Amino acid sequence: MCSKTAVAPLDRIKILMQAQHKHYKNLGFISGLKFIVKNEGFYALYKGNFVQMIRIVPYAAGQFTAYEMYKKHLGGSFGQYSHIDRFLAGAAGGVTAATITYPLDMIRARLAFLSSGDSLYSGISDVAIKIFKQEGGFRALYRGYLPNVIAMVPYAGLSFYTYEKMKYLCIKHAPDYFCSKQKTNTGGLILNVFAKLLCGGIAGAIAHTVSYPLDVTKRRMQLAMMHPATYKYGLGMWSTIRMIYYEDGVVRGLYRGMTVHFVRSVPFVAVGFTSYEIMKQMMNLDTGMKV
């Protein structure tokens, strides 16, 4: 909740740019943010954030819990402190959480895409009902799920793996700079807040760069049935990827909005991992790390 609220304005402008909203397709993310405030008001920067809060509680809880469970279950299956274990546990945790909460992500994208004056939807329940009744039932709520899951493997896997790796390197090579004086009950070292933000930021930057084209594909598919001109993006993942590539290329198509996504991903993952670590310490659930 902390991390999503921190980057909610960037999330909204990213969605508008990815799906090439008619009012934003020629704007950058700074000019886009200014346009939203000028034409819709400051609170419009957080449009769709309420449903995001409803979604993110089970999503983040499921992701982090599943990650810890999968990591424990793998238990060094590929060797003690194996990189593969961490990657697989992170990927599986992300897929588990995404599967549970995907319909809420669909609803939130629809609400965030609406601009001032649009009256297509009146609220969260209205979006869900109209998608269900008009676009193909329960299956329609999972449109774009395949690219989301495929992207989740490198994204979640790399973010958890990179964070754990950076955490290990900080504790091993520079504990005087990156570790707090506080230790866990088992004597393990604990990263300070700056180090947590740094490790989380690097993890987010790497993971988002790899998985970004599939994120664009997912958004186009989620929003495909809102207007007749975009129905073509609802035909399937590979069809959507090909159309994005042929129409706009790689930079302006598959990586459209990457600048704002990159700016967003660093604080998003940094705040997320930092909040997670602090909550574990507050609840005495953090065993720390020994090297």
Descriptive report:
It is a single chain. This protein is mainly α. The chain has a two-stranded antiparallel sheet with strand order 1-2. The radius of gyration is 20 Å and the shape is globular. It has a single domain (1-283), classed as Alpha/alpha barrel (Mitochondrial carrier fold). The protein has helices at 2-6, 8-18, 29-40, 49-74, 83-113, 124-134, 145-173, 175-178, 193-222, 237-248, 250-254, 258-282, and strands spanning 179-183, 189-191. Helix 2 runs antiparallel to helix 12 and helix 7 runs antiparallel to helix 9. It contains twelve helices and two strands, in the order ααααααααββαααα.
Question: Topology of this structure?
Answer:
Layout: H1 2-6, H2 8-18, H3 29-40, H4 49-74, H5 83-113, H6 124-134, H7 145-173, H8 175-178, E1 179-183, E2 189-191, H9 193-222, H10 237-248, H11 250-254, H12 258-282
Antiparallel strand pairs: 1-2
Domain tally: 1
Relative helix content: 55-70%
Any idea what the shape is?
globular
| Total beta strands | 2
N-C termini distance: 32 Å
Can you identify the CATH superfamily? Mitochondrial carrier domain
β-sheet strand percentage: under 5%
- Average pLDDT over all residues: 82
What's the number of helices?
12
User: Which CATH architecture?
Assistant: Alpha/alpha barrel
- The name of the CATH topology is Mitochondrial carrier fold
CATH class: Mainly Alpha
Radius of gyration: 20 Å
The SS-based structural class is: mainly alpha
Strand order of the largest sheet: 1-2
- Oligomeric state of shown chains: single chain
Which stretches are low in confidence, meaning pLDDT under 50 for 5 or more residues running?
A: none
Largest sheet, in brief, is: 2 strands, antiparallel
H/E series: HHHHHHHHEEHHHH
InterPro entries: GDC-like, MCP, MCP_dom_sf, MCP_transmembrane
Membrane topology: Multi-pass membrane protein
Keywords: Membrane, Mitochondrion, Mitochondrion inner membrane, Repeat, Transmembrane, Transport
Pfam families: Mito_carr (PF00153)
